[in-house]
Amino acid sequence: MNLIKFLDEFTSENLAKKGASRRDAFSTFSSLGKKAAIAAVPFGMAAASNKAKAATMFQSDDAVNALQLALTLEYLEASFYLQALDSNVLDQDGTGKANAIYEQISMHESAHVTLLQDTLMDLGETPTAEPTFDFTAGGTFDPFNTNNPDAYAQLLALAQAFEDTGVRAYKGQAGALIGNDNLLTAALQIHSVEARHASEIRRLRGLQGWITLDQRGPNMPSVTQDVYNGEENLNQGGVDVSTLGDESPFTAEASSQAYDEILTGDEAVAIASLFIE
Length: 277
Known about the structure:
- Pfam families: Ferritin_2.
- InterPro entries: Ferritin-like, Ferritin-like_SF.
- This is Ferritin-like domain-containing protein.
- It is a single chain.
- This protein has 277 residues and is mainly α.
- It has one domain (3-221, 263-273): Ferritin, CATH 1.20.1260.10.
- The chain is 53% helix and 1% strand.
- A two-stranded antiparallel ribbon has the order 1-2.
- Helix 8 packs antiparallel against helix 11 (265-273).
- The longest helix is centred in the N-terminal third of the chain and has 27 residues, at 61-87.
């Protein structure tokens, strides 16, 4: 499928209005110049700052698609965390821990958006517009409603699903960036931070920091299963990793935890589209 065409069908000019004070507090990440953004998030992109040089280096439509997909996923995450913070639902944990974690991740995601937008513009490409997101997924969730007794649990569950999607999607797009060392390096460095986010959210939910087989974990809505399909793979490089070990075979559960699988672009788009109006 044509990924860019698909994404364009779901774009709109602006997000629905959210709490101005919180958005204003984080808006500086969107307005940072390239130099400031790179200084704040050292992704090694300085070499790509010259547009003519970047255009010469960058020839692959697949690579452009990969960056546009990454940007759309970062839009989704950045918008989600801002709305979560605006909602005050996180105050239900009673400790302030969840709010502090979401604030930090929110700043990371805003920085990722800025970097990807600037990189695409350096390449002479127009960054895909930010979609309008529906984090209720058509009424399945109600995560920003303080009167919903399940809102806090839903905020954490959605964060886990979004971060796990990001980790697998970045890995799935790495091949499209081969041959463009600066872009591949940047994508992998964002990927590693997304993995840290995923682990942090899992810990916040009282879970282990890694995925076991294709299990989405307790209290995760069934609609999130597509995020975890394929993680049960035990064959790595032609080797059944559950048979490794000097004394006894590893269990399937432990073996699957040691490796992450990819999401294809189409799979990532299908997941994200559940939350795009």
